[in-house]
Amino acid sequence: MPTVKIGNKLVGSDQPCFIIGEIGINHNGNLDLAKKLIDVAITSGCDAVKFQKRTVDVVYTPEELAKPRENPFGSTNGDLKRGLEFGKKEYDDIDKYCQEKDILWFASPWDEASVDFLEQYNPPCYKIASPCLTDDELISYIRNKRRPIILSTGMSDVKMIGHALDIIGNGNLIILHCTSVYPKMTSDGLENLSMVNLKVIEEFKKLFYPIPIGFSSHFSGIMPAYAAVAKGACVVESHITLERALWGSDQASSLEPIQLINLCRMIRELRVAEGDGIKRIYPAEIEVMKKLRRK
Question: Is the backbone peptide bond immediately before 123 cis, with ω within 30 degrees of 0?
């Protein structure tokens, strides 16, 4: 079966699930917090951690940056966006820390300058975030770096995805099913849970064969990500946090450490439990069979 090599890991339907701890902006602009999240990912058994990289003045308009928005860094949206953005000093530390801890790291660049910035770290792959799926110029720019690409498909239909594939091509690519909806806990349970729409994974496997298919989760529970693997996802990405009550827009939809530990364990156990598909009588069953069968 086709595989994609990300760092020292092979990713594909016949390989162990590649688990990504999405740190994103949950570091809240704090390098120490980022390192703690990396440690959580390592302890849990993740294969990689992921960040986001933006050139703030390119990605956002002056009007958007000037909007009032009270936050720990100031009183405007621009203060927030700049406060959350790591620069070279922070990424130098992250790169060194991940090398020392032997875990892969990469990021979603939202603009061409961010791609150039990340290139200095020789990333094992690039993630194209869902909002960037229709940015033809950015996709072309990333493709020209000739690194593996993970394409997230939130806010997109099959036609949009197909157009992105016309630019990217079918090689060295992984597609993640994603729904860019953040759930809310109500008295009736999780609102918008049906929008996870896990059956899309099976459809993607048929539509985009032989490209490996995975799942990017925006849900605070582990069920969707675990079920996605049971449906054949060979990559799972989940937002991670130290505590969902922390300040930040993505914290509430992230997995806390014990959840991430359980998710990784369950995914690894599932691969073992799947077996080889051959129905047989196991030696351990023979004594049971002798005791329980009348004929």
Answer: no
Q: Smallest Cα–Cα separation from 240: which of 9, 19, 5, 23? A: 23
Cα separation values, 48 from 22, 39, 167, 194, Å: 9, 11, 26, 28
The domain in which residue 278 lies consists of 4-292
**What's the predicted TM-score (pTM) here?**
0.95
Q: In CATH, what number is assigned to the domain containing residue 151? A: 3.20.20.70
Domain count of the chain?
Answer: 1
The pair of three-digit structure tokens given for residue 72, joined into one six-digit string: 């720990």
Chain centroid to Cα 90, Å, comes to 21
251 has a pLDDT exceeding 60: yes
Instruction: Kindly tell me the burial class for residue 19, based on how many C-beta atoms sit within 10 Å of its own C-beta (0-12, 13-18, 19 or more).
Output: buried
Q: How many CA atoms lie within 13 A of 267 on its CB side?
A: 32
Residue 185: pLDDT over 60:
no
Question: Can you tell me which residue has the tokens 């129905």?
Answer: 279
pLDDT band at residue 273 using 50, 70 and 90 as cut-offs:
very high
